[in-house]
Amino acid sequence: MHNTIPDEELIQACIEGKRYAQKVLYDRYYSLMYAICVRYTGNKEEAEDVLIEGFIKIFSKIKEFRNEGSFEGWLKRIIINTAINNFRYNSKKKYLNVIDNEKTVEVKDDIDIFKKNYSAEYLIKLIQQLPDGYRIIFNMYEIEGYSHKEIANELGITVSTSKTQLFHAKRILKNKILNEFKLDLY
Q: What is the pTM of this model?
């Protein structure tokens, strides 16, 4: 029954402060938003905290949704921004600044290991194991489609740092996959 309520009606009911609508909206988008939180955080507990904080923001800002673009996209943006703010708040930028002066390296994969068919659960587990800065930039660039300039602006780093962090994230992921499947790099 709840799945048949259109988003537009749910949005209006949430604006009116109706708890049942908030519950239906939460239930409808929980899995998708939780998956985003898991990708951006280091563990499930932190992901749950980010998710709850994100939904609090969603419900407090829902009247600002203007039907310009998809509602799901609007929800994702709030959840992603909440995850990024959580990252900033926890002052985990140490990984971002360490290699700011390193030469930027273009990523050229001889083995296109990231286009193989791995389960989403397996890949999320690997991404969660990345150091915080690498994980945030990998998610923003590879999954959410941010440019390096946008990442640099969001995180207060240089474009060069963003590119280098992505390179190192990919290298770590590639090595983890290769080691697990006992493949040779070259």
A: 0.71
